[in-house]
Specification:
There is one protein chain. The protein is globular. It is mainly alpha-helical and about 160 residues long. The longest helix has 20 residues. The chain has one domain: Cytochrome c-like domain (Cytochrome Bc1 Complex, Chain D, domain 2), CATH 1.10.760. It is about 50% helix and about 5% strand.
Length: about 160
């Protein structure tokens, strides 16, 4: 008959159980700094299709934007502007489609801070992907803009 090491060391069994409970509690008590906007408030603003856009937009944001604008949308000091609570973005969310597609050169003022770092364009993204990305950016963190429509993005890109 083979004896289990757990039976040989009863305190180890208790320690593992206690450690697991502490770890579980720690994981559950943490906050998600990538989206301080509560899920319920997003669901109040967006319908099922728009929530799908939001989810796809988050994936795109992680892939294309988070390296510079940071995962929490706070930007990078005075080098890269924030997207969270960014007056520049929120006054013309759909107009930001052009910046995503074609990039940004020159100075821009965001929340009374001047930025002058070029942003690359992502011409490989289609209007639907840009609408998803903008739906995420404009509703994540402390932003509460609402949905961004693909047709509006198409119009903005054709201006």
């Amino acid at each position: 008959m083979v004896k289990s090491k757990m039976n040989t060391y009863p305190f180890l069994k208790g320690f593992c159980l206690l450690f697991g409970l502490v770890l579980l509690a720690a994981c559950q008590s943490g906050t998600d700094k990538t989206s301080s906007t509560s899920t319920s408030s997003i669901q109040d603003r967006l319908d099922n299709k728009e929530i799908k856009y939001f989810s796809n937009g988050k994936r795109l944001y992680t892939q294309y934007c988070a390296n510079c604008h940071m995962e929490d949308g706070e930007g990078l000091g005075k080098l890269i502007p924030p997207l969270n609570k960014a007056d520049y973005l929120l006054k013309d969310v759909v107009g930001a489609a052009k910046i995503i597609a074609h990039g940004q050169q020159g100075e821009i003022m965001v929340n009374n801070i001047q930025y002058n770092q070029p942003m690359p364009g992502y011409s490989n993204l289609n209007a639907n992907q840009i609408a998803e990305l903008l739906t995420y950016i404009s509703n994540a963190w402390d932003n509460a803009y609402g949905p961004v429509e693909v047709n509006d993005v198409k119009k903005a890109l054709n201006k």
